[in-house]
Amino acid sequence: MTLAATGVTVRRAGEKDSVSGVVPRWVALPETVEEISAVLRACEEQDLAVVPAGGGTKLHWGHPPERCDVLLDMCCMNEIIEHAAGDLVVRTQAGVTMDALAATLAGKGQELALDPPFAEHTTVGGTLATATAGPRAFRYGTARDLLIGITVVLADGTVAKSGGKVVKNVAGYDLGKLFTGSRGTLGVIAEATFRLHPLPPERRWIVTRTKVADLAGEPLRRLAASQAEPSAVEIDCPDGRNATIAVLVEGSAAGQRAPALRDVLGDGTITAEPPDWWGLILMDDVLLEVRFPPARTVETLAAVGETRFSFRGSPVTGQAYLELWDDVSEEELTAVVDRLRARIEALGGRVTVPASPYEGVDRWGHVSTLPLMRRVKERFDPGRRMSPGRFVGGI
Amino acid sequence: METLIAALRSLLPHDSVITDPVRLRTYECDGLTYHRATPGVVVLPATAEQVARVVRLCNDFGVPFVARGSGTGLSGGALPREDGVLIVTSKMRAILEVDLDNRRAVVEPGVTNLAITEAVRDRGHYYAPDPSSQQICSIGGNVAENSGGAHCLKYGFTVNHVEACEIVTPDGDLVTLDRMDPGYDLLGAFVGSEGTLGIATKITVRLCRAPESVTTVLAAFGSIEQGGEAVSAIIGAGIVPAAIEMMDALAIEAAEAAVACAYPEGAGAVLIVELDGPAAEVERQFAQLREICSGAFELRVAADPAERAAIWKGRKSAFAAVGRISPAYIVQDGVVPRTSLPGVLAAIDRLSAEHRIKVANVFHAGDGNLHPLVLFDDAEPGAGERAEVVSGAILDLCIEHGGSITGEHGVGVDKSRYMPRMFSEDDLDTMQLVRCAFDPRGLANPGKVFPTPRLCGEVPGVRKGVHPLVESGKAEQF
Ligand SMILES: Cc1cc2nc3c(=O)[nH]c(=O)nc-3n(C[C@H](O)[C@H](O)[C@H](O)COP(=O)(O)OP(=O)(O)OC[C@H]3O[C@@H](n4cnc5c(N)ncnc54)[C@H](O)[C@@H]3O)c2cc1C
Ligand SMILES: Cc1cc2nc3c(=O)[nH]c(=O)nc-3n(C[C@H](O)[C@H](O)[C@H](O)COP(=O)(O)OP(=O)(O)OC[C@H]3O[C@@H](n4cnc5c(N)ncnc54)[C@H](O)[C@@H]3O)c2cc1C
Question: Any idea where the FAD-binding PCMH-type domain is (chain A) (predicted)?
């Protein structure tokens, strides 16, 4: 069957639909799970390569696709199927924006405890497929920890689900975990079911400026172990020496709990609003991510401080993004990544490069389980037609 | 088998290979005692490298292997194969590292769940997932089953607390799945795979800080319905307690007979609610909770750890306790959306009356995880069969209400036949792709989880370049 014969809305693609410089031939706009399946079946028959797209905010992350014939735009899959407030569960199509979802949930005093920036553009599916951590990962985990059920469409059009709409469920393999963070290389995420949390009645941020050197030792460790139970701790550090720390405490009695956290920091301002940089990355044409043992935060900050990148992330989960405000050449970026990777890996951490305009850069470093990942990819997408080449090791 | 055993003996110390029929029989079942099989041979490796060597040997001989921790599983997951090797982790019980600065511990798979908490409790930390079997069950078994516990309502399951896992893959490679690594979340897929994707040989778990304050409340209601309404009201008020447990009258009667837990007399249901967290928060939530439970005819609040233990005593002994009021019983494990609880409980009542089989209900009410105890007299002809029917019908109820056939005990051999009721053939075939990626030869715990899985077959050839149809112009129709 041809794409046209599926009856799904399809238009010719243009320059603006390009994925990391690769211009697809068509853009398909399915409106139902069945339509996604029909498109993928047609693509299988015609050997067309497919890249799924949500809001498109992170479509330039990863390698350019080896080929891309069809951009599968999920924007019409925008229905929130069921918000079972009494069960603290929501089931939604993957094209729903995170903002629209949050608005519906807030209507019943609930939230999905993820903090993707620019939520008016980002989608549920894109958020799952990217699976990065925001500030509150410290308390709530990341997307994979909140996902309880998923419906996916495989490269050959097979529709499969796992999990369900109950929070507790150990029947069968958890395909949701496998697809979370798969960057569109295993299939299309069509629907997702999440566990929710009540919206916290109060929120307070404790914000203070400090010298990185003064962070050595106690304060960060005590923040993480504080029985006042912060939901997040973030550091903004542009130069490796001076930092702003912000601690979020939320829930009932947040106002009462905040002073204890300020005491741990030594001093600070308690506010009801986050600092303007909270959980945000504005420049991501070139973006590095570091993961590190929380106890090695100071060394990590120092290592990053030797580069031109600024650090924004969490000393309690050990995850941060490194942002760059000027241009960088391929040679310089390659050298920075290699040097930083050696330093951070010696601390027991990892450096990856989510976004880079240059292909000469080693984006992932050595991944010891790559052979197993390739075997998974081969089973799910034997024809290499789903976002081919975009992810680790060119999977 | 004889040559395999000889080869195993050359790999492992003498006392690590068990072939004596009497000793083999001690491994013939797990906590689900009505499935039994004598293992072909049992090995007790002491290191990951030994596990890997055993698994490679199984590959050489094309023989299946089954992992076993403490054998407390309730779905027959560790049921051995007569034609296979049972790999028991009881010699791998070292806590290798406790790193409080990074809130982690690295342990061998045979370490018991409780031992981790005991190692860090005096320093104000604990390991959160707390299955009722925590004194005996192994962390390797917990990883395989993605075990939960009474407190998983707030704190999540094993999968949310495992940071990394060294595994021996079904073809005998030793690899580490780490949450920190980029790429597919193989760790997430491995946890809960019931020993079918390999054997965990080293596990890095997350440690939690002990909460500042804990308040445990026992509320006695006249009926299950009233108890259920209170649960809804708690969730509706935006409170996420650490635990909400419920027991019905029959379960209370059993607990009373077994451990004299002294729950309020005449209760149709008791609710145990535990709030924990920062003192100021717990205090506020407790005030709300008191309000919500105003319909309870008695409310007890534990003032100290001893009183807390007294409240939990009845609940924790409930499974074993029904032995006091019934000669035989089946422990069922199913899940429904929490809001469907009242309807499902009423339907269980009807089933019970219709088949003349008593059902005692104990459940994790906060997350809709039911543990109906289906009671019968095995001396009475036909009673066992009727109990089976009721037990199976309860799972059907769970599926009908959009729930699950297992919330924490796993599928194992016991429930594989229910999988097609919950999942379509396409769902199961897709899960099988994961299985085939890890275990193309199907040697790791075969016959568990999936009903008669298909053979993996060859991976279709990877096609590259322009499709012949496109080249010939036929596919350019659009
Ligand atoms: C500082 C910072 C903080 C962040 N915080 C969080 C956070 O707290 N929690 C969180 O979860 N994320 C967080 N993110 C991640 C980010 O917000 C997501 O990547 C974003 O939501 C992507 O959505 P999108 O719809 O624009 O995806 P797109 O840009 O359209 O797609 C992103 C990727 O996903 C694939 N994809 C998209 N839709 C699908 C689908 N339906 N099926 C399969 N593959 C698909 C695409 O092919 C592409 O590879 C953060 C990012 C940054 C920079
Ligand atoms: C009284 C009682 C109360 C219980 N309460 C709870 C509860 O509250 N919550 C709950 O979730 N469960 C509960 N259980 C069930 C059981 O204790 C858990 O499933 C537990 O995780 C099993 O651990 P084990 O070491 O006994 O595993 P086993 O029974 O030995 O094995 C279970 C499964 O894990 C596999 N396995 C074992 N070790 C490994 C390994 N190292 N690598 C890979 N696979 C492995 C086996 O092949 C098998 O499939 C209870 C059981 C009993 C008897």
Answer: 19-199
Both tokens of B315, joined, read: 């609940």
Q: Which of A214-218, B55-59, B242-246 has the lowest mean pLDDT?
A: A214-218
Cα(B417) to ligand 2 centroid in Å equals: 20
Say if CB B170 and CB B55 are below 8 A apart: yes
**Closest residue on chain A to B229 (Cα):** A86
d(CA B327, CA B329): 7
Residues 6+ apart with CB under 8 A from A81: A91, A92, A93, A191
Nearest chain A residue to B192 by CA: give it.
Answer: A170
φ, ψ of residue A389 to 5 degrees: the values are 85, 0
DSSP-derived secondary structure for A57-72? TTTTSSSPPS--SEEE
Please check whether residue B469 touches A, CB under 8 A.
yes
Quick one: closest CA in A to B364, which residue?
A168
Per the DSSP assignment, residues forming a β-bridge with A95 are: none
- Kind of pairing between the strands at B162-168 and A50-53: unpaired
User: How far from B21 is each of B38, B42, B65, B90, CA to CA, in Å?
Assistant: 8, 10, 18, 19
Express each pLDDT in A348-380 by its tens digit.
999 999 999 999 999 999 999 999 999 999 999
Q: Which atom of ligand 1 is nearest to the CA of A184?
A: 44
Assess whether the region B211-318 and the region B326-410 belong to the same CATH fold: yes
pLDDT in tens, B89-136: 999 999 999 999 999 999 999 999 999 999 999 999 999 999 999 999
Complex ipTM: 0.97
Contact between A383 and A69 under an 8 Å Cβ cutoff? The reply is: no
Token pair 């495992």 in the structure block, residue: B162
- What are the residues whose beta carbons fall under 8 Å from the beta carbon of B228, sequence distance 6 or more? B246, B269, B341, B342, B345, B365
- Give the CA angle between residues B53, B57, B62 to the nearest 5°: 145
CB contact under 8 A, B169 and A144: no
Closest CA to A13 of A46, A41, A61, A50: A50
At residue B52, φ and ψ (nearest 5 deg) are -60, -40
Listing DSSP states for A173-186 in one string gives --HHHHHTT-TTSS
- Report the C-alpha gap between A183 and B99 in whole angstroms: 33
The CATH code of domain B95-209 reads 3.30.465.10
Tens of pLDDT, residues B357-394: 999 999 999 999 999 999 999 999 999 999 999 999 99
pLDDT band of residue B460 (cuts 50, 70, 90) is low
Buried b (16+ CB within 10 A) or exposed e, B43-80: bbbbebebbbbbbebbeebebbbbbbbbbbbbbbbbbb
Number of H helices, E strands in chain A: 11, 19
CATH number for the domain that contains residue A233: 3.40.462.20
**CATH number for the domain that contains residue A95:** 3.30.465.10
A67 and A89 belong to one structural domain: no
What is the DSSP pairing of strand A80-84 with strand A269-271?
A: unpaired
Angle of helix B318-325 relative to helix B249-259, nearest 10 degrees? 90
Mutate-to-test residue for ligand 2 from B43, B92, B132, B373, highest number of ligand atoms within 8 A of CB: B132
The domain segmentation of chain B, as residue ranges, is 2-88, 95-209, 211-318, 326-410
CB-CB under 8 Å, B434 with A375: no
Number of structural domains chain A divides into: 3
Q: Looking at the CA of A280, name the nearest ligand.
A: 1
Domain encompassing residue A18: 4-74+379-394
Per-residue pLDDT at B452? 79
Give the Cα-Cα-Cα angle B263, B270, A88 (nearest 5 degrees).
Answer: 150
Give B-chain residues touching A154 at CB under 8 angstroms.
Answer: 430
